[in-house]
Design brief:
The protein is α+β, with helices and mostly antiparallel strands. Helix content is 47%, strand content 9%. It has a five-stranded mixed sheet, covered by helices on one side.
Length: 202
């Protein structure tokens, strides 16, 4: 498998999952502005959406969208515990969380990274994020991870998007439960290794 990624982007989530699962893979960095890969290829010929992550499978097919990719990866190594078994209620809880993170958290960051976004649009996005962070804090409560004591692909995704708060001027310290969650995930050895590989930490 080959993961196309951009450092610190939402592709960090499947990158973490690949390492947590211990799956064999290679990576190639993508410049999202030029849509060129590190080797000089036109990324849109790999993923016509022009967005990371994109996972090229061993048969040459391409899987896109982070929430789908992380579940696929977890199912390649079910013993990793990164996703509950398919067809069980815990699995649907995982899907519920992945959808919430994708639609309610991830997408509300978009205007904050868009230099053409109007100030009122950005203000609305920040207000939306703050309400989502409050809900997530209540959902996490005193749990170690989103599904309880076991680290899952949803935790990798939430950790990734919460990592953007510092870049857009949101103080995550207002939500101590989320700040503690991020510190807990960041301390995981495989997460550390992934962040080092992407040049996010030394």
């Amino acid at each position: 498998m080959k993961l196309y990624y951009s450092p610190g982007a939402c592709s960090l989530s499947p990158h973490i999952v690949l390492n947590e699962a211990g799956l064999p893979y290679t990576t190639e960095k993508v410049d999202l502005k030029s849509k060129k890969t590190e080797s000089g290829a036109d990324f849109t010929t790999i993923n016509a959406k022009g967005a990371v992550p994109a996972l090229v499978l061993d048969d040459g097919s391409v899987l896109t969208e982070g929430a789908a990719i992380v579940q696929y990866l977890a199912d390649q190594k079910p013993q990793s515990g990164l996703a509950p078994p398919a067809g069980t209620m815990p699995r649907y809880r995982l899907i519920e969380l992945l959808n919430y993170i994708a639609s309610e958290v991830h997408k509300n960051f978009s205007p904050l990274f868009n230099p053409r976004a109007a100030a009122d649009w950005k203000a609305a996005a920040i207000a939306n994020l703050e309400s989502r962070f409050t809900w997530l804090s209540g959902y996490l409560g005193d749990k170690k991870y989103l599904l309880g004591d076991t680290f899952s692909v949803a935790d990798a995704y939430l950790f990734t998007v919460l990592g953007w708060t510092a870049k857009v001027g949101i103080d995550l310290g207002k939500w101590p439960v989320l700040a503690a969650f991020c510190a807990r995930v960041a301390a995981r050895p495989k997460v550390q290794a992934t962040m080092k590989a992407e040049g996010l930490i030394n």
